[in-house]
What we know:
Elements: E1 3-6, H1 8-18, E2 42-45, H2 55-72, E3 81-85, E4 99-102, H3 104-114, E5 118-121, E6 124-127, E7 130-135, E8 144-152, E9 155-161, H4 171-174, E10 176-181, H5 189-196, H6 203-222, E11 225-236, E12 245-248, E13 251-256, H7 260-269, H8 273-276, H9 301-311, E14 316-321, E15 328-330, H10 335-347, E16 356-361, H11 366-380, E17 389-393, H12 403-416, H13 418-423, E18 426-431, H14 437-451, E19 455-458, H15 467-471, H16 477-480, H17 502-505, H18 522-539, E20 552-556, H19 560-572, E21 580-584, E22 591-597, E23 600-607, H20 610-616, E24 620-625, H21 632-640, E25 647-650, H22 657-665
Parallel strand pairs: 15-17, 17-18, 18-19, 20-21, 20-24, 21-23, 24-25
Antiparallel strand pairs: 1-13, 2-7, 3-4, 3-7, 5-6, 8-9, 8-11, 9-10, 11-12, 11-13, 14-16, 22-23
Helix pairs in contact: 5-6, 11-12, 12-14
EC number: 2.3.3.8
InterPro entries: Citrate-bd, Citrate_synth_N, Citrate_synthase, CoA-bd, NAD(P)-bd_dom_sf, Succinyl-CoA_synth-like
Domain ATP-citrate synthase citrate-binding: 297-473
Amino acid sequence: MSAKAIREYDGKLLLAHYLQQSPTMATTQPTAAFAQPQTRLAQVNLSEVNTTDSGDKISAAVEAALSRAERLNPWLTSTKLVAKPDQLIKRRGKSGLLLLNADWAQVKEWIRERAVKEVAVGEISGVLKTFLVEPFVAHPAEVEYYVCIQSHRDGDEILFTHEGGVEIGDVDAKALRLQVPIAQPLPDSESIAGKLLADIASATQRAALATFIERLYAVYVDLNFTYLEINPLVVLETADGALPQVVYLDLAAKLDQTAEFESGDKWAKARSDAVVYGTAAAEAVGPAMDFPAPFGRELSREEAYIQELDAKTGASLKLTILNKEGRIWTMVAGGGASVVYSDAIAALGFAGELANYGEYSGAPSEAQTYEYAKTILDLMTRTQRAEGKVLIIGGGIANFTNVATTFKGIIRALKEYRQALIATNVRVFVRRAGPNWQEGLRAMRELGETLGVEIRVYGPETHVTAIVPLALGQASPAAVGAGFRDSLAKQIPDSTAASSPGTPATMDIADPLQSRPAVVAPAAAAAAAAAAAATAADDKPSWYAPFTANTRAIVYGMQPRAVQGMLDFDFICKRTVPSVACMVYPFGGNHVQKFYWGTQETLLPVFASLAEAASQFPDADVVVNFASCRSVFASTSEMLGLPQIRTVAIIAEGVPERHARKLISL
């Protein structure tokens, strides 16, 4: 999930620094009708302190953190203050976790009483380790407002109510709303006031709020927020006729973590010591944004280890422990499959026994898969259950992940934990498919014959979640099927089809060392056009069916492994014309790339320009886009601008939400 909550401290620093800097999203930027007060925020951070530390060590750490806050923020000793935990806790006031109108001595004592101690908020318990201290702002209740900006598939939505504060009530029922469609400008201040501020009598406050909302939305878009709520938002008018001050007293926010490459430097700068404390000698670049775990969900040592592994690889490794005493553990390949398996377990009434949630995907190495599997097996075998435990190693049909390679890592971990698995009475159920799936399943089946642990192995002949009811005793083995049968000696069998592909075999490929702008000679273009014309009459796809048996694609990016896999699949299916027409690689000149068609070599042209590739192969109406998350928006926009392209398959993960929504709207 890309939308990650941030601390109130960080959210207010972002807003304070960029409120007057972010470029407007309106057609014209109005003159601000409000004054921005000086930002004063002090953080008391004890996140490195553990509850298992001695009382003296915890007390010393608390005093050191309080002293540091006082040293960096001398204003703490001369003003009335507000103190509260800053750990993504909702309704802190109603939970007794808010101190108002206190001096620094009272704040320190209040923090000492609660720091590194467990508290219950509703049904959730957690340890308080981070506190926010800021000046107390006295104000009448009638100047408290509520504003929220949130993102939806079709655009952004601004909500506003003229009544804010603790007793705001049902926001959805009473809020006025303003929709901002994707790629559309924000309305002018008068329109904002007419849509959202009709219940405010004061013209001064209405003007201040209208221009503040314009600025707030500018920051929201500029910094890739996905949610931003201020309650209460206070407008303080002055007796001398100066601009009213707009103060955001309480704030909750989420950022799009996948947009860190785009906005990460801005997030860091607003939180640097030079900006926060105004000292010229301080570091001008702040720390990377911290995305804390939800209250009551501190990362365990194992979760932190997998998170560290995930950060060091291009693959995806995720682990969340739900119930360490649960008897159902999963090791699922793919984010979508992890949801499907969890839903299947919950649908059978075993949600309370589900011990973990996570996934491994993106072609992790054998070593990475071993470390991931070892971590899960270690957690699983720490405690015993009378009825034993179940390990579900599941997954759909992999695109590029080598099943045999990842299974080598899992098998290595299973062998290492053999005695613990036997002692814990663990049964293992496997369902997987994809590249080299037979080799991987064969190795897993052979392991089951020698390990001393029951291992049932199933392949693509079995429904993806069929092993779940079998593992949980809700279905018999006969209902699931006989399981994996090693029926094929090799995955690319001999074929009676022609040994050379149809269109590429007739291509007159240009010498890549020559300076000709086009790779494919007219004869090749004519062959491609003839192939398209021959199938046009009976192969024209319906508007709702993007693919047919004769669909041809352009592969964007230098991905020879993926292309070879597609050609192998074509050959197995006895296609006469390969599904890959050509490749596009913008960072090199036109050339050709060697591939195999069955056991024969063939050449595919590689173009530096997408437009040139499309013109040379007018029958190709699909693009498989391997561009990275940083460049996929620009490249996909170009693809969608070509009339012949009907389908674009985006492989990149971690595309910023705002980019994805713009692509959907094109």
